[in-house]
Amino acid sequence: MATIKDIAERAKVSTATVSRVLNNDPSLSVSEDTRERIFAIAEEIGYKPERIKRLKKENVLSYKQIGLLLWISSDDEKEDPYFSSVRLSIEKHCEAMGVSIGKVFRGSNVDQITLQQMDGLIVVGSVDVDDIQKIYPNSNAVVLVNHLLDNLEYDSVKINFHKAIEEVLRHLFKLGHHKIGLISGCEYLYKLGPEKRGRTIPDLRQLHFERIMKEQGYYHPDYIYNGDWTTASGYEKMKELLSKPDRPTACFVSSDPMAIGAIRALHEAGVKVPEEMAIVGFDAIEVSAFVNPPLSTVKVFPELIGKTAVQLLVERLEGREPTMHVTIGTEMVVRESCGGKK
């Protein structure tokens, strides 16, 4: 039976060094050639091959540096905590899986030289894939998170917007609402260059909302409003909606921050929630449970989204070849702002 002593003798190092290398001791100062020689000898003489295989893989990953590209700024993260939750999850699971985030890039000012030194890249948001390809041509080591367009050449993680909106509208229909408004935001395909903001792209929540409402014969184009995803924008768009002589009895708002602003406008106008207008948001950020009335919303799972993105990238770094596209489900949280039980 092969032992650590056998490996040490063949590698011409101490048994203590062999043990620390095989246990992936990060405090050990030893050359990479020596590490590789120890792993190779251990495999050759059959020293716990499955364990050695796993440890070698961990050792290789520990030297990998990945880039995290976020279009959203630090200030925008404060406005919508969903994105900070995704980022924190990515950072947490990188550490858990033994890879390092070498650099966090934000916005369009990407240091291309530094980026190309990364072994892999996670991109959060709808960044133009043509621009990504130009500055980071290795599509086998890129994972797209929350990209609203389908890009089959890259691994991706996205939310199941179709089922989410279907569940919201089914609940509102059940409560007797047919005149349902929408307050959403404008989506853009962001550029990695001086243009920064590229062409507009459809918000999938709005697309599915309009499709279902049309199928049911309840669609009112005058009830559709687009803002800029901020709380202030939700407030202003609800004020515009309330100016309509024939206003809706319910409103789906595509993000919780916008929904909180919309509720403020309803309070100021003396419109009772949910008796005169039901409100449903999206994201289930923590504060949504503490507004008055508590906000019904769609719960997404940023922790799982971030974890899945890291898992996909690690699999790619370990050699997986086919692309994978993971869709994460949602859950409707019914609170007082829309009334009724699920």
Automatic annotation (TrEMBL):
InterPro entries assigned: HTH_LacI, LacI/GalR-like_sensor, Lambda_DNA-bd_dom_sf, Peripla_BP_I
Which terms are listed as keywords in the entry?
DNA-binding, Transcription, Transcription regulation
User: Per the database record, which ranges form the HTH lacI-type domain?
Assistant: 2-58
**Do the record's keywords include Transcription regulation?**
yes
Among SUPFAM superfamilies, the record links this protein to: lambda repressor-like DNA-binding domains, Periplasmic binding protein-like I
Q: Where is the signal peptide?
A: none
> Pfam families this protein is in?
LacI, Peripla_BP_3
Which branch of life, at top level?
A: Bacteria
Alphabetical list of PANTHER family matching this protein: HTH-TYPE TRANSCRIPTIONAL REGULATOR EBGR (PTHR30146:SF149), LACI-RELATED TRANSCRIPTIONAL REPRESSOR (PTHR30146)
Name of the featured protein: Substrate-binding domain-containing protein
The species this protein was found in: Paenibacillus ehimensis
